[in-house]
């Protein structure tokens, strides 16, 4: 599959790389890292990355201005996106050939070529694997490409703490740090937070609710967010704040937006993606997102999560 994707890249003059909406470091890192690899191997090709510029990720890379006519006869590669509705920039179907590169469980098979590896920690790790195959045929990785892929791996593994971190992840990261970029600068940019957000995190920790089943949760209303002067999407940066609560099996953030209550589900035990899929969402077994349209609906979801955790076996001593 990797060689088939490289063949497609070689065949096309214009390559446009997409990622998912509401990006994270892996979405942008894999997108930008892949661009660096292709551009270095094929300097005469036009390689564009598309999507909204998010001020939160200025330290990673700026997106390109992509016109409709750029898609003509192009190869479109979508990184880190399990299903078509989550692809940012709906023009992805305007290209000549469509390729999917992703590590999420397959919920929507799309693309003329689809490379899905759920054992990979991140799409950035997969892009590095693609590079290593292409490297035998002369491809090079720039320092900037290495920085972007490293950021993606660090982001999706929670700094190599999550169970998706494998021997291969460490091997890839070990090779990436041989390139010339500043890891301290990168970490600082990834994990620094404005004071308003730190105070919001303090509120969330102080008001965590815990059920006997091992479910921890917080409900953040629109009014509360306004009081702290933060947006709903900003609270994603500390969704793992409950992971270190003793006895926690799964946790959930309910964050009220304009039209919807955003649901962020995380787990250390029972798979939560099936539950998420029944509430207009989906994702990984241990990390999913969903949507609720009333506080009553959040209570129903919470009840189901409670049941999941009650049925989940205790760790054997
Ligand atoms: Mn990812």
UniProtKB/TrEMBL annotation:
Stretches assigned to the DHHA1 domain: 220-310
Name listed for the protein in its UniProt record: DHH family phosphoesterase
Residue stretches in coiled coil: none
Gene3D superfamilies associated with the record: 3.10.310.30, inorganic pyrophosphatase (n-terminal core)
Domain (DDH) ranges: 15-153
GO MF annotation: an example: nucleic acid binding
């Amino acid at each position: 599959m990797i060689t088939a994707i490289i063949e497609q890249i070689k065949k096309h003059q214009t390559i446009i790389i997409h990622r998912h909406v509401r990006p994270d470091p892996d979405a942008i890192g894999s997108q930008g890292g892949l661009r660096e690899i292709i551009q270095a191997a094929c300097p005469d090709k036009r390689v564009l990355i598309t999507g909204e510029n998010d001020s939160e990720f200025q330290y990673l890379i700026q997106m390109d201005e992509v016109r409709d006519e750029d898609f003509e006869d192009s190869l479109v590669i979508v990184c880190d996106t399990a299903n078509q509705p989550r692809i940012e920039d709906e023009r992805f179907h305007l290209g000549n050939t469509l390729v999917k590169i992703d590590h999420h469980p397959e919920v929507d098979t799309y693309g003329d070529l689809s490379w899905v590896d759920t054992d990979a920690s991140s799409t950035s790790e997969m892009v590095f694997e693609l590079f290593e195959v292409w490297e035998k045929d002369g491809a090079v990785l720039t320092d900037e490409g290495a920085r972007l892929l490293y950021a993606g791996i660090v982001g999706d593994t929670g700094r190599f703490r999550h169970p998706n971190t494998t021997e291969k992840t460490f091997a890839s990261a070990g090779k990436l740090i041989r390139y010339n970029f500043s890891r301290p600068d990168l970490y600082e940019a990834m994990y620094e937070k404005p004071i308003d957000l730190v105070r919001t995190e303090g509120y969330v920790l102080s008001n965590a609710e815990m059920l006997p089943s091992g479910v921890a949760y917080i409900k953040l209303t629109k009014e509360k967010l306004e009081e702290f002067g933060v947006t709903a999407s900003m609270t994603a940066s500390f969704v793992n704040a409950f992971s270190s609560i003793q006895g926690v099996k799964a946790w959930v953030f309910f964050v009220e937006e304009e039209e919807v209550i955003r649901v962020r589900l995380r787990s250390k035990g029972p798979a939560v993606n099936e539950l998420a899929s029944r509430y207009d969402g989906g994702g990984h077994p241990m990390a999913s997102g969903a949507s609720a349209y009333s506080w009553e609906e959040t209570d129903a979801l919470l009840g189901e999560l409670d049941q999941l955790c009650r049925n989940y076996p205790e760790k054997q001593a």
